[in-house]
# Entry
Amino acid sequence: MSEIIVVLTEDTLTDADVEHITDLYVDRDVSFHVLVPADTEQNMLASLVDHLSLGELRAALDAALGREAEPVRAELTAHEQLEVNVAAFTATGATADGVVVADDPLPALRAVVADTEVSEIVVVTLPHALEDTFHRDWASRAREELKVPVLHLYTGTNQLG
# Structure
């Protein structure tokens, strides 16, 4: 029976992200369960700080002016991202499935861990200045609550969060 690796991502994974993740488990029989939150409730201050810390001035202005995605569009985007992410894993020969979850993915992670034998959780996000600094990011919260090994990678890099 294969081990279950949960991959929680806030965006479409890059080819490098999928390669980094699958390389971690190359000698193990694993299947990937991908969770993509429908980001319907952005924290304006956190978004503003995140965008400014990454030098994304246009996105920072959009966050400050409240030009975040509306809930219906956020849900559609999450479904599109999930489809691409699962396809990227299966293209490597891996077994993968996934679901779109609510804004706060911790309840969904809690349910998956309670219902299945999850070996590890891999969280892939952009850097989030406030959340990462104060350990309120998804990976830190998952480590505290779930007592399952959690790896935090930054999107498009091999940097650990």
Summary: The domain at 3-41+71-154 is CATH 3.40.50.620 (Rossmann fold). The longest strand covers residues 30-37. The helical segments are 15-24, 44-53, 57-64, 71-91, 106-115, 129-133, 138-146. The longest helix spans residues 71-91.
